[in-house]
Amino acid sequence: MTGPPAGTRRPVRIGVIGYGAMGKAHAYGYTAAPVIRALSVTPVLAAISGRHAAGVEAAAGKLGFESWTTDWREIVERRDIDIVDICTPPGTHTEIVEAAAGAGKAVVCEKPLAASLADAESALAAVERNGVLNAIGFNYRRLPAVALMHEIVASGEIGEVLLWRGSWLSDEFLDPAIAFDWRFDREMGATTIADLGSHLVDLAEWLVSPVDAVCAQSATFTNARSQPDGESVRVRVDEASSALLRFESGARGVLEVARTCARRPCDFTVEVNGTRGTLVFDYSRLNELRLGRVADDEHLYGMRTIRAEHPSHPYAADWWAIGQGVGYGASFVNFFGDLLAAWPDGPWAPDLAVGLRVQRVCDAMERSVGERRWIDVVG
Amino acid sequence: MTGPPAGTRRPVRIGVIGYGAMGKAHAYGYTAAPVIRALSVTPVLAAISGRHAAGVEAAAGKLGFESWTTDWREIVERRDIDIVDICTPPGTHTEIVEAAAGAGKAVVCEKPLAASLADAESALAAVERNGVLNAIGFNYRRLPAVALMHEIVASGEIGEVLLWRGSWLSDEFLDPAIAFDWRFDREMGATTIADLGSHLVDLAEWLVSPVDAVCAQSATFTNARSQPDGESVRVRVDEASSALLRFESGARGVLEVARTCARRPCDFTVEVNGTRGTLVFDYSRLNELRLGRVADDEHLYGMRTIRAEHPSHPYAADWWAIGQGVGYGASFVNFFGDLLAAWPDGPWAPDLAVGLRVQRVCDAMERSVGERRWIDVVG
Amino acid sequence: MTGPPAGTRRPVRIGVIGYGAMGKAHAYGYTAAPVIRALSVTPVLAAISGRHAAGVEAAAGKLGFESWTTDWREIVERRDIDIVDICTPPGTHTEIVEAAAGAGKAVVCEKPLAASLADAESALAAVERNGVLNAIGFNYRRLPAVALMHEIVASGEIGEVLLWRGSWLSDEFLDPAIAFDWRFDREMGATTIADLGSHLVDLAEWLVSPVDAVCAQSATFTNARSQPDGESVRVRVDEASSALLRFESGARGVLEVARTCARRPCDFTVEVNGTRGTLVFDYSRLNELRLGRVADDEHLYGMRTIRAEHPSHPYAADWWAIGQGVGYGASFVNFFGDLLAAWPDGPWAPDLAVGLRVQRVCDAMERSVGERRWIDVVG
Amino acid sequence: MTGPPAGTRRPVRIGVIGYGAMGKAHAYGYTAAPVIRALSVTPVLAAISGRHAAGVEAAAGKLGFESWTTDWREIVERRDIDIVDICTPPGTHTEIVEAAAGAGKAVVCEKPLAASLADAESALAAVERNGVLNAIGFNYRRLPAVALMHEIVASGEIGEVLLWRGSWLSDEFLDPAIAFDWRFDREMGATTIADLGSHLVDLAEWLVSPVDAVCAQSATFTNARSQPDGESVRVRVDEASSALLRFESGARGVLEVARTCARRPCDFTVEVNGTRGTLVFDYSRLNELRLGRVADDEHLYGMRTIRAEHPSHPYAADWWAIGQGVGYGASFVNFFGDLLAAWPDGPWAPDLAVGLRVQRVCDAMERSVGERRWIDVVG
């Protein structure tokens, strides 16, 4: 017997704004999702936009888009586009979200939601006003081991959470010779608290409860950087920040983000300590989750390392045989797989309301740094 | 500005034989390769075959093939197919290779090349006789850290290799209640020496030199298993084997493969000790490579853990920012990316000659088990 | 040839106050030091004191003391005692230090120096007034890997320190059923900030620079515990605290101590990030130190794991062949070895002035918790 | 109240033959044992011997011996000596064992028992003929985590053992410039199979069952070394050996010992795979034991890391609080603690019969290398 593929899958047409690292990661996610997941729709990479014609044209060719444009508004306005996926720097998000929502498009927006709290509020208002599906790019929730961590906490297996800690250490800003670019421009790239910290805050609130007060400090060790033209520009972005957290539930937390840690590329760790157990996730071993349970025989005192690839684990059955492991890309495949599986009725999670919530916590941290005191998180 | 994607990429049309775990992994590799790699051709999933119509039809739909068939010969005979990619059990490989090569197709064949040395010789003869491009699925060579390991050994940085050791531990055959299936059928699934050991032997010969003598032992702890119909069948496949190796270079080695190791899913490790350094790869940390160099200051005695994701490392610049990590799937993306980059002129590596060479070593191990003595590897 | 041992070693007679876990660890340290170190004096365990006659009598027998008493003042007053070593709860330290210093004895005092800043000041004043040698029990400085960490930082090899982080996680207070004892009595056992945190603060200031401002939070999840007689007592000791640190040098830090982390027995980690490198110490691998250097070839990106047992490393030549490893006890052997090697002229380090300095930082943290604001460290 | 130590402990007087690394380790063990263990006897370091007067005199002083001699026979003949503890090179063991046993002394002998099977047989015959207590220095059995490993295997918790693997990797012979000394003299230092391998064989037989057949290979990469006088001497000791093992129980094993592994100081690992679980010990994390159990919920798939310091674990209650860790020295403290606790009636374990048994396996390996075939272990 011979024939065409089973099923007729409805296309869902996607326009991606931005063709940098995130544009590539998203394109990968949409492309691989149908192979990995059993979906009833087929994502189509309809269009991609970017400011530089040569660059975006090349990206469109390589990443498999049907078309490209240097004007993101064209994508927003195209009738055939279902989802607008925003992969540009944070400072541009709100304007694009507003336009896309206004055009009735579903919106996927990379994190942080915006470079300011006011902008984040406007972005959320836009999707709510227009009633469009929306999602914020906290992709790490979709790593199998992180999803398992959430599942175990939610099951009550480790009891009530008492303590949370998260850190993200990299060396990307360590060298003073790195030229000034948009990442060092607070209005465009947002703070390190917002850029890296937003992922950690999202995981903290997802795993524990809302954060209700913070106290933070920030440091910038290289206060000025040269632009390509040689002009020195003052850096107003924090390179390293740390914060004490109080959760509504009564739990306490510690958060650290730093981009001046030599030979640490992207070492993000999250730990929760509950009344009945501990869970530890370390990104450098992203297919594993450590669990210590008070209920376990004391003779076996210690933690177990769960290989978070068992078919019973979140997402694992979609991927490879246990032990083979997934990488960073899987977080996008799983994320977009979930969004497409819920198309067109939703719900989508996390949504821009979560993005705003996280932004409030990050904003409170930034204010705490400026005012050198504890700040309550409002809203 | 607006336009179509840059470049016109010639399609390379692929027919995959088999829709099991390997068929899926290969489909993933062909699908993701263009997003990750800068290719001048576009792989097209033209057809997939399998014995069960419903299954292959569903797989074709999910994995994105244009068509399916229950008769693999149809794929081999189709004019529009450029590459025949064989993902069926080892015992079927040779017949398909012969037909595909005979039809002038380029051949990709999963490992082990065959379930017997005679079949493997026939398979190689077929591709050589027909002068077609051919490759054997030793995908682990394309993990970035393994490729880096090879690069460092080849550079001479660790000196002359003295010792090699490799082991592959899993628990997939531990439970006596697991039903008899083709994996336990020696003529269809081949031995554990061939199935798991072939990967290790390939890495051993790639990293060190040809193996010229082996001495091996095998054990099967569950000697009979029930078929779905309840009939008990004798198992003639080894569950656990180990071997001493002598290399032509004078180096020595130890190899172990076992499928009866509780709670080990796929823990494969390879280490080489040279006159000037040591390299250790552990699959459970697949983005890392450990290196200890005699030349390093003794005050820093120990090994360093290389995060094998630096842009200067093999394949790394194609993927994500350092620290983010890739998974099992990357080995296929990198493998097929390399094959497509060399289309249509080649060379392709490793080819079926490598597959035969590895088969000779595995065959010598199997004979050594039977004859309970050292066996020279001939050919 | 036959004869008596080489050399005549002068005895140094030691009186230990307290026979609990610390009394045992100190007795071990004095006993093993001469075997491990080449000393010109011989420590003699002259006397031990404790409140319970049967207990201290048994301890004296087991630990090898010449005599015991239930009255620590007897030890302080004995003419034949050279060193008074104080291993009692923190709330008792000052009175004993004052008496011992007043009697002209050299003083070794366990950490934290006292249960209050005022007491700590009195203790230091006493040893200074009497001009006696004195040392505070920050034994972790003497773990080989920690000493190596200090040596590398001090050498300038990792450049100027930008960030420091330290955490100490245990589960010793997690179970609400644990009875109230002196550890939960703030005036006797001191806070967790002081008990565990003092070790971390000492390492922070030793590795970086004085801490000049702190902001801290504390939590006590089990607010009342039962005494053996069943009476419920309010717990005023923090179970989990965290703090932001600012160093005089401009570096920043984060510190966490917690005793409510399930299945973490004593997992203390310290990391410093400098302009040219990173150093990481993890107590659970106490014979190792991780180092990442910016100067190393980028192709080898990552950190190396130094086996801190090379003969060129601090203390290592005194112990075993490389790779064999030492344990907790070695910190005491090395500590007392250093003190005895400097007998009777000194200097001893760290001394009670360091103890007071650390107490000031811990006290500032405690005040910060109470006042919910940043507190400058004065003095 | 004031008084002398509790209890009157009978002295057990010990004479140590040899003052090298082992002499020091044994002296440390005897010295620290009473502090750590509750013993009813007190070990006294009565005498130590060595060939060089200045060296042994200094060692006696440092290690705390009452006397020294350059003639080991004096120690054997002294009336006041209870235990003769032999820490000299393997080639000298038998003569000393015979003399000590003949003098009615209890004998502790370092491993391997001898440098030849015939000598080992003579040594065992001597202690049996004279009916003296005797023990062989397989000290690693007394590491808490190794003792726990044995306890768990013996309890049946991991079921019937199917596979065993052990390896010991070091770099001590890697550099061809290392001068010839007794370690390279096969008749004095024994082979690497015997020196390092004997520890592994002991653990294999202790954990699994007697080994009944072996097949081994050996390599020596530096075939000649210079003596201090410049003369080149042929090296007849193996630098790297590996072996396949068959156990009487039907289990299979793989063993490797190598002294040419760059930047591996002493990395010894042992793993057993049973029908119901896996246990892994890695010396570089000597306070931990990994356990994976088939009976554990599949949702928690993986292995747990037991911190082998819980009071319920072997030896742990004698030492420090959980998490603090012990080192190499603890194996001697625990070993001699056990021997002294059984003084004077015994039994002592492992005894010289175990030492001979291990020697038979090592000898079979050496013969297998020479004859290039499987060798049955006899006796």
Q: Describe it for me?
A:
The structure is a homotetramer of 379-residue chains. Chain A is α/β, with parallel strands linked by helices and 379 residues long. The first copy, chain A, folds into 2 domains: 10-139, Rossmann fold (3-Layer(aba) Sandwich), CATH 3.40.50; 141-324 and 351-376, Dihydrodipicolinate Reductase, domain 2 (2-Layer Sandwich). In chain A, 32% of the residues lie in helices and 26% in strands. Chain A has 11 helices and 18 strands. Chain A has helices at 21-36, 53-63, 72-77, 93-102, 117-130, 144-154, 186-189, 192-195, 197-207, 328-341, 352-371, and strands at residues 2-3, 10-17, 41-49, 67-69, 83-86, 106-109, 134-136, 161-169, 211-219, 224-226, 232-234, 240-247, 252-258, 267-274, 277-282, 288-293, 302-307, 375-376. Chain A has a 9-stranded mixed sheet with strand order 17-16-15-14-8-13-12-9-18. The radius of gyration of chain A is 21 Å and the shape is globular. The model of chain A has no long low-confidence stretch (mean pLDDT 97). β1 of chain C pairs antiparallel with β4 (68-69) of chain D.
Mean pLDDT of chain A: 97
CATH class category label of the largest domain in chain A: Alpha Beta
Structural class of chain A: alpha/beta
Distance between the termini of chain A: 61 Å
Low-pLDDT regions of chain A: none
Question: What's the layout of helices and strands?
Answer:
The structure is a homotetramer of 379-residue chains.
Chain A: E1 2-3, E2 10-17, H1 21-36, E3 41-49, H2 53-63, E4 67-69, H3 72-77, E5 83-86, H4 93-102, E6 106-109, H5 117-130, E7 134-136, H6 144-154, E8 161-169, H7 186-189, H8 192-195, H9 197-207, E9 211-219, E10 224-226, E11 232-234, E12 240-247, E13 252-258, E14 267-274, E15 277-282, E16 288-293, E17 302-307, H10 328-341, H11 352-371, E18 375-376
Parallel strand pairs in A: 2-3, 2-5, 3-4, 5-6, 6-7, 8-13
Antiparallel strand pairs in A: 8-14, 9-12, 9-18, 10-11, 12-13, 14-15, 15-16, 16-17
Helix pairs in contact in A: 1-10, 4-5, 5-11, 9-11
